[in-house]
Design brief:
Elongation Factor Tu (Ef-tu), domain 3; 171 residues; 49% strand; 6-stranded antiparallel β-barrel; 12 strands; SH3 type barrels; mainly beta; 6-stranded mixed sheet
C-alpha cells in the first residue's frame, strides 16, 4: 500500500512467538529494522480491517525484533497474531527531506524516459548495497532501473504520479 493511495503503510509482519508472556517475533521492513519500534501504535490487519494496537515494549533480539503488544498477555494470544501484517498510519512517518522519498511514495509512479516513452510503473524497489533499484513493470515486461537521482532519475513529481528517467526503452 502506498501513502498516496491508502492510509496505511506496511512496515512488517508478525513472524513468530517469543516466550510464554505474549511477546512476538517481528519481521521488520523498516531501515534500520529497529525503527519499527519507534511507532507507539501499530495497526494489525485482521481480515479486511486494520485494528490499532499499542506497542508496550520491544527490542532487538539476535538478528530480529521482538515486541510486546497491549492486550497480548500469553502465548495463545500471541499465536493468534501469527502472520499478521503490521502497518502504521501515513501521518506517523517523519516528513521526508527535500529530494528524499519514501519507497512507498515511489511505488505506482508512471515512469517515462526523456523522449516521452512510457516504460511502465514502479512496482517495487530493491536494496542492492551499491544503490537502490526500481522494478518497473509494463505488462509482462520488467525493467530494473537504478534509483540514482541526477544520473538516471531526472525528475519526480509525486502530485502528477510521474517520474522521468534517462533510460533507453530497449534496455
Amino acid at each position: 500500500m502506498t501513502g498516496k493511495k491508502g492510509d496505511y503503510i506496511v512496515v512488517g509482519r508478525i513472524s513468530g512467538l517469543y516466550g510464554v508472556r505474549g511477546w512476538v517475533k517481528v519481521f521488520s521492513h523498516t531501515q534500520p529494522r529497529e525503527n519499527i519500534l519507534s511507532y507507539s501504535t501499530w495497526y494489525l490487519k485482521r481480515g479486511s480491517e486494520w485494528l490499532a494496537t499499542g506497542l508496550e515494549d520491544g527490542r532487538s533480539q539476535g538478528k530480529g525484533i521482538v515486541a510486546k503488544l497491549q492486550g497480548c498477555d500469553d502465548r495463545d494470544a500471541a499465536a493468534a497474531l501469527m502472520d499478521t501484517t503490521v502497518a502504521i498510519r501515513r501521518e506517523q512517518l517523519p516528513q521526508a527531506q527535500s529530494g528524499e522519498y519514501y519507497w512507498t511514495d515511489l511505488q505506482g509512479l508512471r515512469v517515462i524516459n526523456l523522449e516521452g516513452v512510457e516504460l511502465g510503473t514502479v512496482h517495487h524497489l530493491l536494496e542492492t548495497g551499491a544503490n537502490d533499484v526500481m522494478v518497473v513493470r509494463q505488462g509482462k515486461e520488467e525493467r530494473l532501473i537504478p534509483f540514482i537521482q541526477g544520473q538516471f532519475v531526472t525528475r519526480i513529481d509525486l502530485d502528477a504520479g510521474e517520474m522521468t528517467v534517462d533510460w533507453d526503452p530497449d534496455f
